[in-house]
Amino acid sequence: MQSCESSGDSADDPLSRGLRRRGQPRVVVIGAGLAGLAAARALLEQGFTDVTVLEASSHIGGRVQSVKLGHATFELGATWIHGSHGNPIYQLAEANGLLEETTDGERSVGRISLYSKNGVACYLTNRGRRIPKDVVEEFSDLYNEVYNLTQEFFRNGKPVNAESQNSVGVFTREKVRNRIRDDPDDTEATKRLKLAMIQQYLKVESCESSSHSIDEVSLSAFGEWTEIPGAHHIIPSGFMRVVELLAKGIPPHVIQLGKPVRCIHWDQASARPRGPEIEPRGEGDHNHDAGEGGQSGENPQQGRWDEDEQWPVVVECEDCEVIPADHVIVTVSLGVLKRQYTSFFRPCLPTEKVAAIHRLGIGTTDKIFLEFEEPFWGPECNSLQFVWEDEAESCTLTYPPELWYRKICGFDVLYPPERYGHVLSGWICGEEALVMERCDDEAVAEICTEMLRQFTGNPNIPKPRRILRSAWGSNPYFRGSYSYTQVGSSGADVEKLAKPLPYTESSKTAHGSSTKQQPGHLLSSKCPEQSLDPSRGSIKPMQVLFSGEATHRKYYSTTHGALLSGQREAARLIEMYRDLFQQGP
User: Where is this region: Disordered (predicted)?
Assistant: First the structure.
């Protein structure tokens, strides 16, 4: 791990002089989701006092969003604690009595319904027929055998053949189809049903991976994602309780809500603010004597920039406040990085990090909750799965906008009804989810009701009394649900995304080559290789750090991956300043 000796031993190093005078490194964390809160809490627990968390939205939690309706809590975002053995989210929830076990066994390969341990999934066709239980079980066994094969390419170094296009979906669809067609015991009618079920299962996988289509998920990298052993759990009182427990160790004034960031100006050791509109935050430990909204209290230096200071990073907020810092931990989603990386960082990001942002994938998985006065499903039913019989030969999971509803893979029954009432939770992903997000509640409720009538064969199903749904794709602070390894990407891209800036290698090939000044920007936009000029003295290491679920190589897409990534980046800084804190005041 990089130490700070290179900038701390030189009496002539202005960065070190400033740090010694201030006594504390200043760390700004962008984002108050699980990663940001975990990073801030870890730093504060280790003696860092000059820490600020900037959250763009009006609430903490990020992609955890628990909504209370009546006596029940519904999760628009993170829902399950996946696995218990060594899972820090599980440990935090268990220690505070928040858990309820929701699945049996050590693994849940099928992942059709995790709301209830009891009951069966009802597979229904668009002709209003229920697929026989024995056909469902036979198909499920076959599908799971092939699914297990997808793990072998990464774990066993198995080569990927050209026919699969390195796609989980293409490989799975063809393997399952061939086995169904070659089965001498099934009738042609049964084969047609099983072939149609492939698309339904792949829609579920697409929702699980938060891809537009499982066809876009890399086969060679698929097995690197690691499932933590142990049962899955939900938190009846809301996943937000975990967020609140994390935030409990953080003084309220550390977190500033409604504080979106416009740009991170890094490698600014020689930069000076220009223009009267710049009002940088005052020097000193701004975590003490804070007033409302997380702003510093009386400080004789507030509102001016110490002329002797050289700050390596400057955070420019949307409200025009400029916050100088020693380090910034960026926890924004991969979706935001894809949309804003060109304007969000000055100077430009290294080319290999930009390439990783492009190669890795993030999509939208949305939920549609429908509440009914009375259940129209039987007590043994834990989910309603939609199988379109005319998709038996389909090779795509993409639909025209007017047929967006075909991407809904099914509805889970929320259990127990004593807690939730009579509620179904539908799943939809990809571009079709974005179309759904643009529809109003009335239109979505109407379409879902018509689908339920069609697939159950019951024309008397009433419209739901209430609808609640997520909209992660169109939310400007997320631009998607969670990440996946897209075809063409690998775990190495996750590592590149997580790599702190500036790079320690003196390699210009790792950086962008453009040195053109960007018009209209507050501070210097010189590209990073110019920081290697020895006349500027030592370079402050780890100016910009990256965390969030998309930066965890084994646990991307999970809440525990997000939390661990925040702790990882905090650990880098804790190690960097270990000698400073051991010396004491």
Answer: 272-306, 504-539
